[in-house]
């Protein structure tokens, strides 16, 4: 018999659901407005979206795309930025026509808001799945502990490949969890199929290290008899080869003009058919990623995870430790200390780890074997760890007998850990918001007296710290790449020429005659060699101990200057 329809929620439950559902949007949007600029790691996707909106896909437009002149470190698939650009276009065109967006900076913010909206929708889907399967307290604590942390909410609207994939990862995790309480076996199989296909497609075209996440969970589903090996194999083939069938022609066509660029890391057209695999071979197998630094094997365990979880580390450690201890013969002691196995949340931790524990281990151990490590590489396991911390907090908040006498202390501890998260988030947000001097250059240039047609050169540092094609507000991009209605506002007057060429020697007569303004963080000696300072951009130098006991202070200083040739 089909399951009965859900009963209407009482008004107080509706209000709670509305509040919890609004929080991801509010918090991620707040981060974007506080910190609207980007770092160089976000530039490929961001600039590709810019080119979709500005030039479109016509033959004459494609030759103007930024990646042909500046291909970046390694190629990535164009499908995510193309989709993001197509979704952005109607909103951008409308807001430009209405005068809501007046500069290209507004379009950059809009792109990030749209990406954050996809994150928020998938986050709410996962939170709702937790509520369905594990109860309302799990949703409350998952929302508070996840959004009270810094990294995911701050980066949710940033166009790093890891975070363009994150909405799909969250939705896939949600599908696997929701399949536990499906009304029919067929519905559960459909949810598992959608999850494996989506994760495999994301691994294939966006971040190949996701294979370390999806393969173990597929194996776990087979071992738990929730799917057959034939099913997961078929789903993987659909996700992998299906996504390649779509992306390979696109990536080959768009990357081929860049193949002759001297800085392009590949030399064979065949490497363009699957950019993610070619980049993995280039970075991991050929060792080029180690040029960006080598970290010890334990880096993720001793640095990244404590930094990412902050107060949640204690909750994850408690839940995971008690569950593991119970599995190796400590059941009696675990029951005496908190009745963990007897509590619903305690059993739920076991259900999560049974499905996802192998994925967590695979990601951590597999990526620890590589020399170069970054916290965002292990991003897929972070939502799982937040789920475990939420179930742990739920258990501590409602300790059952005979440990209920500890409940006030346990609740105080949970609130204290949440407060630690919020404090750390406040500090890291302050430090991060004031760390984009390149993004503020466009405003400083307005006061520098740049005339019509004059050329401004941007070396590496301002481009790494916030200057993007969207901050080039006086350039000539038409913004009508996708239709009659422009997606970008008209360029500011007067029109300027922006130059991102590398290897420029400002001391040479050639460049003295070819460049009128320079934006640089390395101005020593240039003011004595034909250049005068006309504007500057300040920023955060660091945080250190201030005079007096237990006092710290932020140190501010000049980060960039704008020089004019005379």
From TrEMBL:
GO terms for biological process: protein N-linked glycosylation. It is a multi-pass membrane protein. It is found in: Endoplasmic reticulum membrane. One of its GO terms (molecular function) is dol-P-Man:Man(7)GlcNAc(2)-PP-Dol alpha-1,6-mannosyltransferase activity. It catalyses: an alpha-D-Man-(1->2)-alpha-D-Man-(1->2)-alpha-D-Man-(1->3)-[alpha-D-Man-(1->2)-alpha-D-Man-(1->3)-alpha-D-Man-(1->6)]-beta-D-Man-(1->4)-beta-D-GlcNAc-(1->4)-alpha-D-GlcNAc-diphospho-di-trans,poly-cis-dolichol + a di-trans,poly-cis-dolichyl beta-D-mannosyl phosphate = an alpha-D-Man-(1->2)-alpha-D-Man-(1->2)-alpha-D-Man-(1->3)-[alpha-D-Man-(1->2)-alpha-D-Man-(1->3)-[alpha-D-Man-(1->6)]-alpha-D-Man-(1->6)]-beta-D-Man-(1->4)-beta-D-GlcNAc-(1->4)-alpha-D-GlcNAc-diphospho-di-trans,poly-cis-dolichol + a di-trans,poly-cis-dolichyl phosphate + H(+). One of its GO terms (cellular component) is endoplasmic reticulum membrane. Mannosyltransferase that operates in the biosynthetic pathway of dolichol-linked oligosaccharides, the glycan precursors employed in protein asparagine (N)-glycosylation. The assembly of dolichol-linked oligosaccharides begins on the cytosolic side of the endoplasmic reticulum membrane and finishes in its lumen. The sequential addition of sugars to dolichol pyrophosphate produces dolichol-linked oligosaccharides containing fourteen sugars, including two GlcNAcs, nine mannoses and three glucoses. This is Mannosyltransferase.
């Amino acid at each position: 018999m089909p399951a009965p329809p859900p009963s209407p929620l009482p008004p107080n439950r509706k209000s709670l659901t509305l509040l919890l559902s609004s929080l991801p949007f509010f918090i991620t949007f707040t981060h974007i407005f506080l910190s609207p600029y980007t770092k160089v790691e976000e530039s490929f996707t961001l600039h590709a979206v810019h080119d979709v909106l500005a030039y479109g896909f016509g033959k004459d437009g494609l030759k103007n795309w930024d990646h042909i002149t500046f291909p970046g470190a390694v190629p990535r698939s164009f499908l995510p930025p193309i989709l993001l650009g197509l979704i952005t276009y109607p909103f951008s065109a409308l807001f430009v026509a209405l005068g809501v967006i007046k500069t290209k900076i507004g379009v950059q913010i809009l792109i990030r808001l749209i990406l954050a909206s996809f994150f928020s929708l998938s986050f709410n889907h996962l939170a709702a799945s937790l509520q369905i399967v594990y109860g309302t307290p799990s949703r409350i604590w998952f929302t508070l502990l996840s959004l009270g942390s810094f990294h995911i909410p701050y980066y949710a609207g940033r166009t790093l490949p890891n975070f363009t994939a994150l909405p799909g990862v969250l939705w896939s995790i949600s599908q696997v969890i929701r399949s536990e309480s499906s009304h029919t076996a067929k519905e559960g199989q459909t949810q598992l199929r959608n999850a494996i296909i989506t994760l495999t497609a994301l691994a294939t075209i966006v971040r190949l290290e996701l294979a370390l996440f999806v393969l173990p969970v597929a194996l776990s589903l087979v071992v738990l008899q929730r799917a057959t090996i034939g099913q997961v194999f078929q789903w993987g083939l659909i996700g992998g080869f299906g996504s390649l069938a779509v992306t390979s022609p696109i990536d080959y066509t768009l990357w081929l003009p860049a193949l002759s660029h001297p800085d392009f890391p590949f030399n064979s057209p065949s490497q363009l058919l699957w950019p993610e695999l070619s980049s993995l071979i280039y970075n991991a197998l050929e060792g080029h990623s180690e040029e960006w630094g080598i970290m010890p094997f334990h880096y993720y365990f001793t640095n990244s995870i404590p930094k990412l979880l902050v107060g949640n580390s204690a909750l994850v450690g408690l839940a995971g430790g008690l569950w593991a201890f119970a599995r190796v013969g400590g059941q009696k002691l675990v029951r005496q200390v908190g009745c963990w196995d007897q509590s619903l949340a305690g059993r739920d931790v076991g259900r999560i780890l049974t499905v996802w524990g192998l994925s967590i281990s695979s990601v951590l151990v597999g990526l620890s074997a590589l020399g170069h490590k970054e916290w965002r590489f292990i991003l897929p396991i972070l939502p799982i760890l937040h789920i475990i911390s939420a179930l742990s907090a739920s258990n501590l908040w409602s300790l059952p007998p005979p440990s209920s006498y500890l409940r006030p202390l346990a609740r105080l501890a949970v609130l204290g850990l949440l407060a630690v998260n919020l404090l750390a988030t406040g500090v890291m947000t302050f430090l991060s918001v004031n760390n984009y001097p390149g993004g503020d250059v466009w405003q400083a240039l307005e006061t520098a007296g740049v005339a019509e047609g004059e050329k401004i050169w941007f070396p590496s540092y301002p481009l790494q710290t916030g200057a993007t094609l969207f901050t080039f507000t006086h350039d000539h991009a038409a913004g009508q790449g996708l239709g009659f209605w422009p997606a970008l506002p008209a360029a500011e007057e007067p029109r300027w020429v922006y130059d991102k060429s590398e290897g420029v020697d400002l001391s040479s007569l050639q460049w003295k005659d070819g460049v009128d303004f320079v934006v640089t963080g390395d101005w020593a000696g240039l003011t004595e060699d034909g250049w005068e300072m006309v504007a500057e951009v300040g920023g955060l130098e660091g945080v250190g101990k201030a005079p007096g006991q237990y006092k710290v202070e932020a140190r501010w200083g000049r980060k960039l200057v704008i020089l004019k040739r005379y």
